[in-house]
Amino acid sequence: MAMERHGQTIETPTEARQAEPGPSVLALLTASTSLAVLILGVIWFSFFRV
């Protein structure tokens, strides 16, 4: 259980690691992957068109 000492919250290492990545991490991963695929597609079609 988190304790407060001298105005600071003291947690054990296990308690400090309990955070879960929220949906913002998934959104960032999806957006960056989509952008990378889009950029690579533009490069592919501009240089290797038949």
Q: What does this 3D model show about the protein?
A:
This protein has 50 residues and is of the alpha+beta class. The chain contains two helices and two strands, in the order E-E-H-H. It has a two-stranded antiparallel sheet with strand order 1-2. A hairpin with a 2-residue loop joins strand 1 and strand 2. The chain is rod-shaped. It starts with a strand and ends with a helix. The model has no long low-confidence stretch (mean pLDDT 86).
Protein topology:
Elements: E1 3-5, E2 8-10, H1 13-16, H2 23-47
Antiparallel strand pairs: 1-2
Strands in their spatial order, largest beta sheet: 1-2
- DSSP strand content: 5-15%
Question: Which residue ranges are poorly predicted, with pLDDT under 50 across at least 5 consecutive positions?
Answer: none
Oligomer description:
single chain
Residues in helices, as a percent range: 55-70%
Q: How many extended strands?
A: 2
H/E series, N to C?
A: EEHH
Number of helices in the DSSP assignment: 2
- State the major sheet: 2 strands, antiparallel
Radius of gyration (CA) equals 22 Å
Structural class: alpha+beta
Q: What is the overall shape?
A: rod-shaped
Q: Distance between termini? A: 65 Å
Mean of pLDDT: 86
